[in-house]
């Protein structure tokens, strides 16, 4: 590894350099295809980590917007507490190093192929990401209000420690706070219209794709192998371990209640983790999860040598045409097969004073966060506490929007809004301090965000909830419950199990709740 320093810049992260890396993105219309089948066909002949999948299967129309299959990993940027690492081919690594160093790279990578920049504070982290994003000049006919070329992006919960002054948090060994992965090829599915486009990025900084022709991949995806089960059976797990027992969790809830009683906080999201060892592959777990819990933000993606499998119902942020949107979810009622009973449950959800109070508090958090980076007068709650149907539940959902200022980019928008208040409680920073004091384990990707960031400004990131992470040996899944003044330990414990139930079933074939 080579250790490079990051020079300071002036203005909005604009380094002085001779030019930008030109990328030609060719957009070709393709016929309908199943994103999961395409992902599986590509994965059979490509190395691990070279393909990712994003799907949108169920939920409100406002969220069922796009799906993507990406392949041909070109570069990966990993952000840690004290450094940023870049792994890429020689030409692309040189070009990005030039962008980061505002001139010729002052050090060559060693045999590992990884270059490292030491960072001494949060500002340097986001400056590096800005420079990497701004290093590319894209030539394409794809509209700027959607994805053409950019990064599969992950933010772990601990990324907040690179944004705010918070008590020291111990990052999980070897796991980055943020990753940006750049892929050469993308199949982009526009869900409302049913259109599919193949986006192929060409540049002199990387070679052309030498893998199987896409026509062959699509043909294989259209004719899956015989015996390929849509819902693979789950063998009995080898081991199941909870990070805490119910008694310990109850004590943690009591601690939260004491903080609330003395006015430290109004709500605190406290949780736990379940680890499962099983013979199921990540692809099999994903198939089971999408069957049990089809959601608007589904993902099966590589992350720091691991695999992340998720079925999130909730958007973190979307930036489109300079409009920043958040859609906080707070309040849930299970759906019923009987229409009359289903209507009663919806009415009960709407009438719940507890759910309303929590929801209003979290909407206020979103308003405050977006207000930090939007043009005065443009902040708007376009929908408030709407009951929106998902596959198996109804949720209370609001939509908060604002037009970002000329000085705001994706990274300043992320820093203003991350982590989502629905993952922390309120007030956000004090709730995070309490969580950090009470929870023993790091959260990692759980309660973070995942999605795509186009180099031209479009972004769509989902909250990482209803998620499992596979480290090659075991799967981990986490959930939290929002403790408020009238919470009970038993009720909050049950809430965490309910939130983990679909993922746990996907991993084990067993139910967490009767």
From TrEMBL:
InterPro entries: ADC_synthase, Anth_synth_I-like, Anth_synth_I_N, Chorismate_C
Pfam families: Anth_synt_I_N (PF04715), Chorismate_bind (PF00425)
All copies of domain Anthranilate synthase component I N-terminal, residue ranges: 35-190
Biased composition (Low complexity): 221-231
Chain ranges of the Chorismate-utilising enzyme C-terminal domain: 246-499
Domain of life of the organism encoding this protein: Bacteria
Ranges for region Disordered: 1-22, 221-241
Listed GO biological process terms: L-tryptophan biosynthetic process
Compositionally biased region (Polar residues): 1-11
Protein name as it appears in the record: Anthranilate synthase component I family protein
